[in-house]
Design brief:
By secondary structure, the protein is an alpha/beta fold. The chain is built from 18 helices and 27 strands.
Length: 526
């Protein structure tokens, strides 16, 4: 193996080492079945044959537009193994946005599942996963192995700005980040992961899929996003990798069953064998973090972004600190600019943005990736995220406030599903609150409130009194400028379809402000 490995090289080494062991678990209709590493390798060579028949050559872009599945994993490994470039699109993307990204990728082939949306494009051939699997395996001698510097994937990330940019990651970016992440967090050689985050996002792809590939352990794909808790019972995973929203929902389930003080309640809910819970993608609410720590399963948070493949820092059990995102990975340098912006340099930093040299030069300066996030280090070298440089709210008092920090606190309420903090140019912060529907219904039922519509449910005086109390409780020790004055409870959640959130549910604040302009004006009395 070369000094800087590739994803196919990691895969081949694992197959040679543990080929007869269980590798990939698939749940269908509530039943779990397994593929060995050698069976996975054989399936990958079948898909390589299918891609070659479809005309794919090294360097060609292959777009995959499908939800998580075993076939998604096999297709990813096949594309990378033949030195083509994988361009995964989020399955939740509206068809119009997906078609735009297909066009930007200048793709040779579009791969979809049997049930995925097909994107009409006269210059791009479309095939299904079944089409690709219907071929004899390609012999190893007919496969061109990539080099570590070769482009492996393009990931379109619009972040919170709405402008699609294609992040170009090399094989070296992906492989070194998977290895460094695994070694930093101390992930054991014997583990079973339940993967439910979208593999089209680099977080799950590196931190679940490629760490599994490196370790040669076991991974199981959840049947779908609605069966995760059932799948925990079925699989009994030892490792979970999630985003704050998932852990927030788990905490709400514990609270709903009045089991927050019951020893082992959290462990039992997650299948009984979980030893490590990793968290990334955003900051976790302190109330949620406290619950997990009290239950003996501290949330081991990490930090990164797509442009860093994605992990920059990660937490090991021994250096867990509430509110922190661990220490920089081995080989990754991190420093803070004069204004506190986090800058990163290392083998995980992207090649650049697809066909956008100006954006690349703006993002990478003298080899340092400008993350746009603000951070600080504690005395023990743990990194803490304190906000986004471009998302600071400037109040009329002159105070600058990070809305994400306030939202993080409010998300700890069992009655809150999502929240967006506003207040630019006003004297106080305000909040658009999406209620947790189950918790709110329970409150209305228990208090026998006369509610005849969804609109009445979120405007009832007793409901507003409840949320006022939750806001004040969670922000009791916050700075004056971080406290919420006016607020409105919304009758619907923010959605991807309306461009109010990204594929990983990060808030698009400008769109939210536009879509809820009337509510914000009424809230402030303007």
């Amino acid at each position: 193996m070369s000094e800087i490995p590739t994803i196919p090289a990691l895969f081949q080494a694992t197959v040679q080492r543990v080929g007869d062991r269980p590798a990939a678990g698939v749940i269908g209709e509530g039943k779990l079945s397994w593929k060995t590493w050698q069976e996975v390798a054989d399936d990958v060579r079948r898909v390589i044959a299918g891609l070659q028949v479809a005309g794919v050559k090294p360097g060609d872009r292959v777009v995959q537009f499908a939800p998580n599945s075993y076939e998604w994993v096999i297709t990813d490994l096949a594309i990378l193994s033949m030195s083509a470039v994988h361009v995964p699109l989020h399955a939740s993307l509206p068809a119009g946005h997906a078609a735009e990204q297909l066009e930007l990728a200048d793709a040779t082939l579009l791969v979809v599942s049997e049930h995925s949306k097909r994107l009409g494009h006269q210059n791009v051939k479309c095939v299904t996963h079944s089409d690709l699997h219907a071929h004899p395996p390609t012999p190893h001698s007919a496969i061109r192995n990539p080099q570590s510097a070769d482009l492996a994937t393009i990931l379109f990330t619009s972040g919170t700005t709405g402008q699609p940019r294609g992040v170009m990651l090399s094989h070296g970016n992906l492989a070194t980040n998977a290895i460094a992440t695994t070694e930093t967090v101390g992930s054991p050689h014997e583990e079973t992961r339940l993967c439910f985050l979208p593999l089209s996002h680099i977080y799950a792809r590196t931190c679940d899929l490629y760490t599994w590939l490196f370790r040669g352990t076991r991974i199981v794909l959840a049947e779908n996003r609605d069966t995760i808790m059932r799948d925990c019972q079925l699989v009994q995973p030892t490792v979970l990798n999630g985003v704050p929203y998932f852990y927030q929902k788990v905490a709400q389930a514990i609270h709903a069953g009045d089991k927050s003080q019951e020893p082992g309640a959290l462990l039992n809910l997650l299948g009984g064998k979980v030893r490590l819970c990793f968290c990334g993608g955003a900051a976790v609410a302190p109330e949620v973090e406290k619950l997990f720590a009290a239950q003996g399963l501290p949330l081991l948070s990490g930090y990164g972004l797509t442009e860093a493949a994605p992990v920059i820092s990660a937490t090991h059990q021994e250096n867990y600190r509430a509110g922190c995102v661990g220490r920089p990975l081995a080989g990754v340098e991190v420093r803070l600019a004069d204004d506190g912006e986090i800058l990163a340099r290392g083998p995980n930093v992207m090649l650049g943005y697809w066909r956008d040299d100006d954006a690349t030069r703006e993002a990478i300066v003298d080899g340092w990736l400008q993350t746009g996030d603000l951070g600080e280090f504690d005395a023990e070298g743990n990194l803490r995220i304190v906000g986004r440089r471009k998302e600071l709210i400037v109040l009329s008092t002159g105070k600058n406030v990070s809305p994400a920090a306030v939202e993080q606190r409010l998300a700890g309420s069992p009655f809150v599903e999502t929240v967006c903090v506003v207040g630019e140019g006003h004297s106080h912060l305000g909040a658009l609150i999406v209620p947790n529907p189950q918790a709110l219904k329970k409150f209305i039922r228990e208090n026998r409130l006369w509610v005849w519509s969804k609109r009445r449910a979120v405007t009832h005086p007793k409901v507003r009194e409840l949320y006022r109390g939750e806001i004040d409780r969670l922000l009791a020790d916050a700075a004056r400028e971080e406290r919420i004055g006016p607020f409105v409870i919304l009758p619907r959640n923010f959605s991807i379809e309306t461009d109010e959130v990204t594929a990983k549910f990060s808030l698009r604040r400008e769109t939210i402000a536009k879509n809820f302009a009337g509510e914000i004006e009424a809230m402030y009395g303007t």
